[in-house]
Amino acid sequence: MRVIDLENINYAMRNETQFVLRCEEVFHDKISAAAAAILSNRQEKPVVALTGPSGSGKTTTAMRLQEYLQNLGVKVCLLSMDNFFLPLDKRPPEATDWESPYCVDVDTLLTCISQLLDGMEADIPWYDFKNGTTGGYRKMQGEKDCIVIAEGIHMLNPLLFDKLRGIANGVYVAPRTRIITNDDRIVRPEQLRVARRLIRDYNTRGHSLQETVERAESVDRGEINYIMPHKGNAAIHIDTFHDYEPCILAKYLNEIPQFRQELTPEYLEKHGFEVTYLPVDEYGRVTAQQVADMAMYSRLNYIGGKHGGQAYGAGTYFDMNGGGNTGYASGMTLNAVLNPKTARIITDHALRAKAAAFDKSHPAFAKATGGYKTSFRNNNMSVYALVLGYNVIKDASGSYHNIIDRSALVYRK
Predict the structure, then answer these.
(1) What mean pLDDT do residues 209-219 have?
(2) Three-state secondary structure along the chain?
(3) Which pLDDT band holds residue 238 (cuts at 50, 70, 90)?
(4) pLDDT class for 338, splitting at 50, 70, 90?
């Protein structure tokens, strides 16, 4: 998982044209590498089955691949699985929600792919999302030596991919970059995808912002049940994050009328979203829900992760009091000492007692973290220090362990 600092993005945006061009060059290189892999076995596998979770950049990546290949003289037919949904009145009982693969008209999609590869003209449907029905058809001409790119959330699902496996390259796309904000919060790829969906669904599908938020639970469930289990079918993986993207998303979200009024912090928290743009409280603490989210989803292990780790969660920036280096510091805080003005210190003994009491009074939080753990090789006490409002743990030997809040440190020249 790649990590980028928001401060670096803001600095680079001072020369926005150069920054955007550089980011586009990076993404162009990703497209070029994927195209080379596709062309290397196009005779055996002329189909590209491109998938990713909702808001992952499937359509954009597919169009960029199409453009790149066509510039090389390759005939490309681009299909979107979104146009092959079954009308609402023709869906089988198994199609329990919009995220189910049973919502897709698999037979029609496979027929169109076959016709295009045979050089025939195919009738490609387009789907009317507002009315839940097929809105009509358009003609698409195939070619014997063409490449067919079919993109959609279920293109690697066995219901579809097993019928294409012998002739298709699987491609999985998603943002795989985390953003660290100026106050050391982590913006996860999942949050970035929600922002993309809010803008897309408002502008192209007639959905209000709240409708998109309220569908998020179903979308997330569909991702877990129908998309992630089949990620292994992909031979090509593309990180669709552009470093300038947070600036663009913020601009377009703020241009949507009633954005702040509809998506209040209270509304978002009610629907299970972490509100990353809110400041910490007057004591510099994050909320229990934010820590629970980080504990469940963090792969950086800054605060120990769900399963803990060594040295109070293996998430300490340093383990000394003006001394040597340890843990994940790798020199980052080698020359740091505690800041007496901002360090909020708790002893190991006191933290254990408070953590046990906190688990009893907050069962949902305890479930998210798996309960507090104190063994050397399975320790998540940094999680509890954070939620209880502390950023430094003092162990029995007198060593100080700083947690994610680096305001507790003073850097020496």
Answers:
(1) 84
(2) CEEEEHHHHHHHHHHHHHHHHHHHHHHHHHHHHHHHHHHHCCCCCCEEEEECCCCCCHHHHHHHHHHHHHHCCCCEEEEEHHHHECCHHHCCCCCCCCCCHHHECHHHHHHHHHHHHCCCEEEEEEEECCCCEEEEEEEEECCCCCEEEEECCCCCCHHHHCCCHHHEEEEEEECCEEEECCCCCEECHHHHHHHHHHHHHHHHCCCCHHHHHHCHHHHHHHHHHHHHHHHHHCCEEEECCCCCHHHHHHHHHHHCCCHHHHCCHHHHHHCCCCCCCCCCCCCCCCCHHHHHHHHHHCCCCCCCCCCCEHHHHCCCCCECCCCCCCCCCCCCCCCEEECCCCCCEEEHHHHHHHHHHHHHHCHHHHHHHCCCCEECCEECHHHHHHHCCCCEEECCCCCEEECCCHHHEEECC
(3) very high
(4) low
The better pLDDT of the pair 396, 333 is held by: 396
Q: Are 148 and 46 in contact (CB under 8 A)?
A: yes
CA gap 290, 272 in Å, rounded = 10
- Among residues 293, 104, 58, which one has the least CA distance to residue 196? 58
**143 is written with which tokens?**
């070619």
* Among candidate residues 156, 130, 139, 125, the one with its CA nearest the CA of residue 47: 156
Taking residue 61's Cβ as centre, other Cβ atoms within 10 Å add up to 23
pLDDT, tens digit (0-9, with 9 covering 90-100), for 134-180: 989 999 999 999 999 999 999 999 999 999 999 999 999 999 998 88
pLDDT confidence of residue 363: 81
Q: Which of 208-222, 281-295, 350-364 has the lowest average pLDDT? A: 281-295
Percent of the chain residues topping a pLDDT of 70: 76
**How much is the pTM?**
0.64
The single residue listed with the structure tokens 């993005």 is 9
Q: Phi-psi bin for 175: left (phi > 0), alpha (psi -120 to 50), beta?
A: beta
Instruction: Supply 255's token pair.
Output: 């241009």
Taking the C-alpha atoms of residue 69 and residue 213, their distance in angstroms, rounded to an integer, is: 36
Looking at the DSSP bridge assignments, the partners of residue 51 are 172
Instruction: Write down the pLDDT at residue 92.
Output: 87
Task: Give Cβ neighbours of residue 212 (< 8 Å, ≥ 6 apart).
Answer: 194, 197, 198, 201, 202
Phi, psi of 273 (to 5 degrees): -100, 140
